[in-house]
Amino acid sequence: MVALVPAAAAPASRRRRPSWFRSVAFEWVRAGRGPGLWLAWLGLLAAAGLTRAGSTGPALAILAWLLLTLETYGLAEPWSWLLPPLRSPSAWLRSRVGWGLLYFGLTVAPLAVLLALGPAGVGGTALVLGWCAVVLTMIILAKYAFYPHATLGRLTQAGAVGVGMSILGSNPAYLVLLLVCFLGLLLKSRNRLRQYRAE
What is the predicted pLDDT for the residue at 84? Predict the structure, then answer.
C-alpha cells in the first residue's frame, strides 16, 4: 500500500511541508514506485519456497532481500523535512529505526515463515532476523551520521554491511567490532542531527 502513495517532492517553500505519512514512509514510497523491487521479492519468495526443505535457500533469500532493501536508505530527505519532528535527535532516530524495522519485518515475514518451517526452526530464524535487524539499524544510522552528504553516507553504509557480514565468521573479535561500529554510528548520527534540531 505504501507504493500507491504519490511520491513526495521537495517542498517549494519552507511553509509547505510533506504530510506525516510521506515523511515517515519516505524511503519506501520512493522504492515502491518502480516494479523492480517487488518483482525481486516475488522471485526470492519463489526461490525460498522451492528450497524450503533446507535452511540455506530461505536464509539466502532473507539475506538477499535485506541487501535489496538497503538501497532504499541511500537518498537523504531534504533537511527542511527534519525540522517539524526533530525536537530530539534520539527520538527521531528511534522513530526512523522503528519504522524501518516494521517495513522490513512485514515484507520479510513470508520468507521467515518458510525458514522457520525448515530445519532452522524458530530459533534459527530468530537469530537470522535479529542479525538482519542489527544490520538494518546500522544502515539507517549511517544515513544520518553524515547527513546530508550522500557519498559519505553510502560509503559508511557499505562499511556497516561489511562489518555485519564479518560476524558470520568464527572469530569472536568481529562481534566486538560490530558493537563498536554500532555505538559509533549511534553517537555520530545523534551529534549530526543536533545541528538540525528545531528549538
Answer: 55
Whether the CB-CB separation of 96 and 23 falls below 8 Å is answered with no
The confidence score (pLDDT) of residue 12 equals 47
172 pLDDT above the threshold of 90: no
Report angle CA 143, 138, 99 to the nearest 5 degrees. Answer: 75
* CA pair distance 144, 76, nearest whole angstrom: 8
CB 15 within 8 A of CB 44: no
**CB proximity list for 148: less than 8 A, separation 6 or greater:** 76, 79
What is the C-alpha separation between 96 and 77, in angstroms, rounded?
12
Instruction: Return the residue matching grid coordinates 510521506.
Output: 22
Specify the DSSP element, H or E, that contains 116: helix 89-116
Closest to 125 (Cα-Cα) out of 135, 133, 115, 117:
115
| Contact predicate 26/78, CB 8 Å | no
User: What confidence tens digit (pLDDT) does each residue in 106-122 have?
Assistant: 999 999 999 999 888 99
Nearest CA-CA partner of 168 in 59, 95, 83 = 59
Cα–Cα distance measured from residue 191 to residue 169, given in angstroms and rounded to the nearest whole number: 32
Of the pLDDT bands very low, low, confident and very high (cuts 50, 70, 90), residue 54 is confident
Band (184; pLDDT cuts 50, 70, 90): very high
